[in-house]
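Changelog note: in this version the structure field was regenerated for every chain. One regenerated record is shown below for reference.
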Amino acid sequence: MAEAKPRSRAAMIRPIVLLIVLGTIAFFVWRSATRKEGYTGGDVMTTGTIEAVHVDLGFKVSGRLAEVPVSEGSSVQAGQLVGRLEAQDLEFQVGTARAALEATHATAAQARANRDKAAQDLARQRELMASDATTQQQLDAASSAARVAAAQVAAADAQARQAESALAQAELQRSYAELRAGEAGQVSEKVHEAGEMVMAGTPVVTLAQMDTVKVHAPVDETRVGAVRPGDKVKVKVYTFDHATFDGEVISIQPAGEFATRKDWGAQRRDIRTFTVTARIPNPQHLLKDGMTAEVTIQVGPQAKQLSQAQR
């Protein structure tokens, strides 16, 4: 009799446990069958990174740096000098080109004087020929000399034009010895210092343009289909808890990146991410390069209507 009670109690508990197990299995089967991974409406929230637009500034000619009069973190205005090359060689080229131009001008002036004299001699020979005071041979010689003199003037003018072009090119090369900022920004990196040799096109200073920044935010593939370029974006950063910065989506990465999680419930493939980029006006430069941002993408009405139609 003492053993009958435990057995009857176990017999009562066993069906209850079985029902719980069957109920749990049924719940997960139902959840797997009815689960939807797609966009179900509402704003898309994610975490991104603020990025300034970086511009590398370099010289168009090679040379030795004479100075780099900026420091990292300093603000730079459009047109401000940020680097200068030692210009002795460029100055020499300008001086040589200017001397060559002056020489061609002198040659051209002499050629014109010779042409004018040849033209006068030809006119005199024609007058003398009219009164039989000269010979046809002398007239032909004067005519030939006039043609040669005219050709020499044309050649001298062509040389002068070439010399003018060479001088303009040398002066342009000399102007390349100064490196100026095309737009306002902040020096994010000073790549080279005074005294170093730099090749043409090598970055010397990198500017971060802070008036407008970008935020790159990963959105997984279950929601990225709802995002469109032009959607409004609201950004918050940890430095300013109560401030919101407005912007808009400008691009959506066409190819997926790393998998953020496994889709265990739907038993499909891993969920991948797509980077959504938004442009954020930053006139006060409060948003800094590299800041972590809480991003809310305000999905447009078309995506919301599509979501409702799929329900």
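Spot check on this record: The first helix runs from residue 4 to 34. DSSP finds four helices and 13 strands in the chain.
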